[in-house]
Structures are given as structure tokens and as C-alpha cells.
Design a protein that fits this description.
Layout: E1 4-7, H1 8-38, H2 46-70, E2 72-75, E3 90-95, E4 101-107, E5 118-120, H3 124-129, E6 137-142, E7 145-154
Parallel strand pairs: 1-2, 4-5
Antiparallel strand pairs: 3-4, 3-7, 6-7
Helix pairs in contact: 1-2
Length: 155
């Protein structure tokens, strides 16, 4: 079994999604299947087919979440050393070419959300940042071309 690193906030979000799937979405969908079944002929019942597809999605997602939560290695970023970029830490980067500054928290793939300032350690930038220290330069090939950053702070 492979341990998957995750922050406490990410773990809590996945756990809440699992609870919601089991206590709200699954019962609601079971009721939709029962109602669709009551309409008669199942061979041409689009409502029944849609509800069964939704049930398969819900059950698959429940299994996925249970696996992820069961293999989670919850890491508290506050307990980590700030001497190098590692999982859970927040880094401040300066784009060497434009002078723009950005901040990202390095998180697991299930937690990443660029709009929230969270990037996956599995992403090209996340991988390039791991182990880097303040003052190090990072160069990555992005879809828009090569990007060069300087690590200016580890928070």
C-alpha cells in the first residue's frame, strides 16, 4: 500500500465529500432510481438509465475516496523545516523574466487548485521546486514556453 501525502485541510475536504456522497447523494439517487422504476418499462426509461449511471459514478467515487483516505499520510506543514521547499510548504517565487511574484502551496494531486494558490508536487513546477532553497533558480518548460523563477521565500 502506497502512502499518499496530504495536508490536514485536503484530508478534511475529501472526508467531507465522502460523508456527503454517503449521506446525501447516494440516498437521493436511490430514491430517483425507485421513482424511475415506478414509471414502468425500464428498457426505454431514460430517467432510470440516468439514475443508474449516476449511481455507478457515486459508488466509484466513494471507493476512490475511501482508498485515498485509507492511504493518506496527513502532513502538518507547520511542523516542517523551512530550510528547503517540500510538501505542504508555501513558496514565494519571482518570475525572473517579468519580475512578477507568485505564492504557491505545494500539495498533493487531489488538493491542487491553481486559483487557490495550491499546486501539485507532481506538476512540473512542483517537482522542480522540491528540495530547492531560498535563492535557487528554477527553470521549467511550460506550454507557453520556458519559465524561469527564483525562490525568494519559504513560508
Amino acid at each position: 500500500m502506497r502512502q499518499v501525502p496530504i495536508t490536514k485541510q485536503g484530508y478534511d475536504r475529501l472526508k467531507q465529500e465522502l460523508i456527503n456522497l454517503k449521506s446525501v447523494d447516494r440516498p437521493r439517487n436511490i430514491k430517483a432510481i425507485e421513482e424511475a422504476r415506478a414509471h414502468g418499462d425500464l428498457s426505454e426509461n431514460a430517467e432510470f438509465d440516468a439514475a443508474k449511471e449516476r449511481q455507478a459514478f457515486i459508488e466509484g467515487r466513494i471507493m476512490d475516496l475511501e482508498y485515498k483516505l485509507g492511504n493518506a499520510d496527513v502532513i502538518d506543514p507547520e511542523k516542517l523545516s523551512k530550510d528547503a521547499a517540500r510538501f505542504g510548504c508555501t513558496v514565494s517565487l519571482e518570475n525572473i523574466d517579468t519580475g512578477d511574484e507568485v505564492k504557491y502551496q505545494l500539495v498533493g494531486p487531489d488538493e491542487s487548485d491553481i486559483n487557490e494558490g495550491r499546486i501539485s508536487v507532481a506538476s512540473p513546477l512542483g517537482q522542480a521546486l522540491l528540495g530547492k532553497e531560498v535563492g535557487d533558480e528554477i527553470s521549467i518548460l511550460a506550454p507557453g514556453g520556458r519559465r524561469n523563477y527564483e525562490l525568494i521565500e519559504i513560508l
